[in-house]
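anyone else get weird line breaks when pasting these?? whatever heres mine. first is seq + tokens for prot A
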Amino acid sequence: MEKARVYLVGAGPGDPDLLTVKAARLIASADVVVHDGLVDAAIMALISPSARLISVAKSRSRHSVPQDGINDILVREAQVGRVVVRLKGGDPFIFGRGGEEAEACRDAGIDVEVVPGISAAMGGAAATMLPLTHRDASSAVTFVAGQCKGLTDQNWAGLAGKGRTLVIYMGVATAADITEKLISDGLSPDTPVAVLERATRPDARAMQTILTDLGDMIKREGVQSPAIIVVGDVVLKSDAENRLKHFAKQAEKIA
């Protein structure tokens, strides 16, 4: 039996085969699973039929449960002796607000443990053979959130450019603003960019263009979240088309 505590578990970018062994074990044995809306159905299917599911799905314009409410759920369920898994897409500590949830548990005297997951950037890069670092193209990577408050007031100068890779999470809805900001902060309009949509899933897509066309391409292609934007010369090292064909064929075999 697991000791009653809260586990902040990274579900990864979607493919259930990318779960850690520990994550899969905890998902299957938890008493309560508090889950995001973007966790893939194949991963949700691993949850024990006896477990209680609590959805705390979020979107850009609507949070079904505010963060303070999520924190309260985790603490309350653990205080009565239940093993609680907080199941989060990607990794709990990369734009997953896992730090806030861990703090809330610790403040309440609840044992909490973090089980890392493969982030969207790592999963998407691997699926499309897009190296986030490359000896000939980049020796530094920066992760930023494209929906953060005060976006226009932040200084992004130097985050992308020669020898650097910029990965933008949650940037689909603000792509035009992001483009304007990066160019105004000194980045060349013809810098290569890629958009990786639903990375590692059977319906994944990868698109490439230049920075000045980013917002228009997202509209043309009807890109939807979850998706990440990669900015930098590493985009030109990608083998996205061939890799995605491979994953599609594998999905057809499984079906």
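and prot B, same format (seq, then tokens)
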Amino acid sequence: MIAAGLILLAVGALDLARSRLTGVRLGIVLVLLGGALLPLAAWAGAAAWWFAAVAAAAGWAATTSTREPTRWGLWPAAVLGLVTAVAVALIGVREGQGPLERIWPIESPLGVVSLDLAVALVGSLVFLVESGNVIVRASLRGGVVAAAATNALRGGRLIGPLERILVFALTLTGAFTLLAAVLAAKGIVRFPEISRDDEGGDRAEYFLVGSLVSWVVALAAAFLVWWGSAA
């Protein structure tokens, strides 16, 4: 499970960095980040998996963009989902979790949280912030449509991450009634803007496709964590 968590953490941190930095500064930040996290991964007995996570992040960077859709579409997200699912299937919660295990597990209102589970939770949350936006953007047809709809439906880049984190947290805690209320509230709030859509239906497409893909990403992350913790 720690392998999947590290992969999501590496990809999510990469997207957060490259959404704000470019060129040499981006390279410096990524090198420093990778170097800082390597000792922590080694302390958790997962140094080899950190190198695998860095390789997965490099492949993600080569096939996706934080600014516009690429010719690869949703294939990188599908491959990443498959890789993390295989990682969870092959490596659940480990019995030995390295030297760091001595201060773990910790107690929480939902029960005992192992080190592997904590890494998976942190990795999922970091991934949902900006990498979720990358996946949603890749699902929309044509950059012109996406740009026009984005101007009409402002705040999507901020609402999306918050929404995914809420869906992720409410799903893991089993608060399905509250989850349904949150999803319904988004449709109600956006309805006045969507009702003023033009003949092309760009706003409706942007809202429906973007929202559904965003929810699927959050639910998939929640399922991955639940599956790994239950294995």
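btw re prot B: The radius of gyration is 18 Å. The chain has one domain: 2-230.
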